[in-house]
Fold this sequence. Notes:
Number of helices of chain B: 4
Largest sheet of chain A: none
Largest interface: A-B, 36 and 29 residues
Strand order of the largest sheet of chain B: 1-7-6-5-4-3-2
Helix content of chain B: 25-40%
Strand content of chain B: 35-45%
Number of strands of chain B: 7
CATH architecture of chain B: 2-Layer Sandwich
Oligomer: heterodimer
Largest sheet of chain B: 7 strands, antiparallel
Structural class of chain A: mainly alpha
Number of strands of chain A: 0
Distance between the termini of chain A: 39 Å
Number of domains of chain B: 1
CATH class of chain B: Alpha Beta
CATH topology of chain B: Alpha-D-Glucose-1,6-Bisphosphate, Chain A, domain 4
Structural class of chain B: alpha+beta
Amino acid sequence: xxxxxxxxxxxxxxxxxxxxxLDALTPYVGKICGPxxxxxxxxxxxxxxxxIFRGLHSLQEPAALFGWARAIAVREAxxxxxxxxxxxxxxxxxxxxxxDPQLAIDVQDxxxxxxxxxxxxLVLRDLEGLDEQAAAAVLDVPPGTAKSRLHRARVSFRKxxxx
Amino acid sequence: MNWPQVELTDVxxxxxxxxxxxxxxxxxxxxxxxxxxxxxxxxDLDVFAEIHADLESATLLERDGDRVVVRAKGxxxxxxxxxxxxxxxxxxxQSRFVIIGTAVAAEPGGGTRVALTGGIRVPGxxxxxxxxxxxxxxxxxxxxxxxxxx
Lengths: 163, 150
């Protein structure tokens, strides 16, 4: 975490305070970008941080730093992953059972077979613990559409995971 | 679930930080030396002063972990109180009139990538006057390379 006063100092032009913001945000941005962008994760995290620092002055409330950065990280991770075109169509019936001893390895495998948007939903719901409405806001899609989409994504994933 | 995570190198982090500082063009070069060797050299304030053309000396005034205060003396007698983060592989220092940054990372395939930026700070702002930033950084890298060559 980082004190609001340091975030304000960074916004006012103190580049050492910006360095502090970088230290605070880098692990968090890496945590968001990794599961969404996968092999393109380092590119996505770097581009997300670039977007964050270019836009830092526009952050209204320093206390909202991490939520604001999360939205940028998700957007950049989806964009970079799509650009990389490494994703393949989801075949959810193929995912392993929850008690599979290779689960840790298979998580990566499962994620690789989902679209970046699908991975973004899972990250926001399962890793970040956001509710559907908040996740929809981050993904910048209409609430009604988002709700059904998020619901389908979650149910599909769980169903496949337990099969 | 074990979610895959990303760990960025210091050079990747450096590019992001510099992106938030208008005028802070980043110059990078891959040097044919081990990262440990390059980091050790850049962690020496005498080397720091030697490779930056405008500096005559740099003296450590305070240190708290990787946070430092350095008194820098310029070649034309000017003085600056630089504050910031200074650790092996990373340097980000500012005074009212100067910003200096360096980052180091192992290069896949061998060697060490060094990234630099710095110059005259727009007073009170996170911005560098965009005059000769790349040229000065290239000269600084030349001097570092000569020191590494011994």
